[in-house]
Amino acid sequence: QAQLVESGGGLVQPGGSLRLSCAASGFTVDYYVVGWFRQAPGKEREGVSCITSKSGRTDYVDSVKGRFTISRDNAKKTVYLQMNSLKPEDTAVYYCAAGRYVCSLNGPDYSRWGQGTQVTVSS
Fold this sequence. Notes:
The protein is an all-beta fold. Helices cover 0% and strands 48% of the residues. Strands 2, 4, 5, 6, 9, 10 and 11 form a seven-stranded mixed beta sheet that branches. The chain has a four-stranded antiparallel beta sheet with strand order 1-3-8-7, with no helix packed on it.
């Protein structure tokens, strides 16, 4: 059964860091683009970052550029999102997703989704 499982969320103070992990199983994630998305209460889902399957080309939403870094370890079938200098506005449920085409921040471009992990940034 193909699935993506996120982990690493939690409560952190403003300015702190977290590293989210997205572990894939049941399919060859090496061939997939992987994206991170987030959804805060009362807001629409937002694309945060993505990484291509082979070249490792990345893209980020402007609000996280310079603070977040996406990476992948195909041998471990895992994609990471390192989040530094966290702000209260980063509070959301974070989802990873896998797609077959382009590194995109648009949710409909992805076909497989994880269940999400909560990130709360608060003092």
